[in-house]
Fold:
Amino acid sequence: MPDTPKLSIIIPTLNEAGTIETLLSELRSCQAGGAAGQVEVMVVDGGSRDDTVARAVPLAAKVIVREPGRSRQMNAGAREARGPFLLFLHADTRLPKGADRLVERALSGAHSWGRFDVRLEGRHLILPVVAAAMNLRSRLTGIATGDQALFMTRDAFDAVDGFPDQPLMEDIEISRRLKRLSPPACLRDRVISSGRRWDQNGAWATIHLMWQLRWRYWRGASAEDLAREYRHVR
Structure:
């Protein structure tokens, strides 16, 4: 029977054929560099209409297809993951070198969950400022976003019943719940996340939209209503 991995990396996908091979190849290289057998990489696809699944199968430890919805996909992956530590990674985000060791060290003390700092990769000159603001806001509030590669112990994930079944702000909501267990480990090591939504939709328009949605969610607006508006704007 294969050794139980220490860390399970769970990647929700939907039509990510253009990025998934590069991401999974980098993760395999990371494992070969010293973490072979210690990291389990899983892809949970939400019914892609391109060949995301076919491209992922040779490179991931497991590929499963589930009902679309990022929360549902991540929860499905966590149910089948074997590691005591879980890391949820967007398909357009790359981990820093030695991320598995960084996570294990962060979760070996008082912290039951955490996230990385983020650097946004894209054309717009404002992106470094956006990333710095994201990192500072997260450090001050203890709230993390999915772009920052949330990680947690299996026990913490189970204690908060996983990600809430909602179409938007699932990262904000699980952060709120995890904060009741412990403050987050805010790692200064940076993940590199794509700035494609800022490039495609306009940096200032995207910043305004995201802040408006978060403000309204904090004020009590439902995730379902906000998701409908988000999809309409996109």
User: Anything to note?
Assistant: The longest strand covers residues 185-194.
